[in-house]
Amino acid sequence: MLDIPQLLSRVKLFRKKAAVRCAMCSMGGVGSTALARHIGSISDKTIREHAYTPAVYDDEVDIRLGYMFGNPYDAVLSLFRRNYQDMHAKAMNVNSPTPARSLRGMTLEEYLERGVDEFNIERQFDNWVSTLSPKHPTILVKYESLGSTIDKVLEFFQCEEPFELKRRNSSWVDQPSRIIEGLQLIYGDVAAKIDAMPPLKILLPESAHTQTLNAVTS
């Protein structure tokens, strides 16, 4: 039989902390899982957790979306360090026009030698950040700037519970030159796009823009 502290712990673990229905997605390897669970993301541990496009959520109603992105070099290193590469390739390509290539048992060095982004990180990034008028309110979050934007992120999801940030302990700049060159060859273009992104950006549906305009002019 569970004692009171254990019961309270379980209630806290499973309590939905955001006041709105929400789904947090990411490119992977950017620490999004902890935040997704904190706000009660409906996509946590589902095939839509790393949706290749926000259109995957077009069948939803009354939902707010989040997309977290970050340095792709660190993200890919994180995936291989945890041996998630095969699973993540499948997750990043599910429901997309491209089938996932098997990365089972593949080392980072072998992957970089192929010179192909099997995760299709740039495609996913472009799909999420290039939508001018999304169907659902969407917040774009840069992982490296989360320390200064977390309050606004929680406000967007109407989550009053504080979130404890955990910093990445490793960096791609500490890798051997051959690893750095391989990462830059595959992910240099999308890395530049990510660097150019603001720390935080909110995209609103056209209807929301119209309502805001009407409220201002009335």
What features would you highlight for this structure?
218 residues, alpha/beta, Rossmann fold, four-stranded mixed beta sheet, 9 helices, globular, disordered N terminus, Sulfotransferase domain-containing protein
Topology:
Blueprint lengths: L3 H11 L7 E5 L5 H8 L24 E6 L2 H10 L3 H9 L14 H7 L6 H9 L8 E5 L3 H11 L20 H20 L3 E4 L2 H12 L1
Parallel strand pairs: 1-2, 2-3
Antiparallel strand pairs: 3-4
Helix pairs in contact: 5-8
Protein name: Sulfotransferase domain-containing protein
Organism: Hahella chejuensis (strain KCTC 2396)
Can you list the strand order of the major beta sheet?
1-2-3-4
| C-alpha geometry | globular
Beta fraction: 5-15%
Query: What portion of residues is helical?
Result: 40-55%
Label the CATH architecture.
3-Layer(aba) Sandwich
CATH C-level class:
Alpha Beta
Could you give a short account of the major beta sheet?
4 strands, mixed
Query: Kindly, what is the distance between the CA atoms of the first and last residues, rounded to a whole number of angstroms?
Result: 60 Å
Decide which structural class fits the backbone: alpha/beta
Poorly predicted ranges (pLDDT <50, ≥5 residues)? 1-15, 209-218
Rg, Å, rounded? 19 Å
What do the pLDDT scores average to? Answer: 88
Number of strands: 4
Put simply, the count of helices is 9
Q: In sequence order, what are the helices and strands, one letter per element?
A: HEHEHHHHEHHEH
Please tell me the total number of domains. 1
- Find the CATH topology: Rossmann fold
